[in-house]
Amino acid sequence: VQLIESGGRLVQAGGSLKLSCAASGRTFTNYKMAWFRQAPGNEREFLASVTWNLGTTYYADSVKGRFTISRDKTKSVVFLQMNYLKAEDTAVYYCYADTQLQTPPQRGPLNGYWGQGTQVTVSS
């Protein structure tokens, strides 16, 4: 499985950004796809997930109403649309794929597949 994120860049506070995650290597029918982020000195933070087959979404309270996760099954891409960005959204954003990801996500080690991450920097 290969997950390749793109779209991270420097953006001003209040702006928008759309991240993409190109997924390949297998059929993702039974997978749940998710976005996490990690800022320096902070723990990894779950943001949102979407089931590949039905497109059912789930969001962390911290981003609900500002971020939208979606997937394009025909292109095998997962998106994260981020609006009204804040300085505290600055982090490396990771794409994740797992057949066992719970809703809400379980604590502890996750044994799915991770992308390499893409840096999002929000200037205030």
Topology (elements, then pairings):
Layout: E1 2-6, E2 10-12, E3 17-24, E4 32-38, E5 45-51, E6 57-59, E7 67-72, E8 77-82, E9 91-98, E10 113-114, E11 118-123
Parallel strand pairs: 2-11
Antiparallel strand pairs: 1-3, 3-8, 4-5, 4-9, 5-6, 7-8, 9-10, 9-11
Protein model, in words:
- The chain is an all-beta fold and 124 residues long.
- It has no helices and 11 strands.
- Helix content is 0%, strand content 49%.
- Strands 2, 4, 5, 6, 9, 10 and 11 form a 7-stranded mixed beta sheet that branches.
- It starts with a strand and ends with a strand.
Structural class given helices, strands, pairing? mainly beta
DSSP E strands, number:
11
What is the helical fraction, as a range of percent?
under 10%
Give the C-alpha Rg: 13 Å
* Overall pLDDT confidence: 96
Beta-strand content:
over 45%
N-to-C SSE string, H for helix and E for strand: EEEEEEEEEEE
Shape: globular
**Terminal-residue CA separation:** 37 Å
> What's the helix count?
0
Could you write a compact summary of the structure shown?
The protein is mostly beta strands.
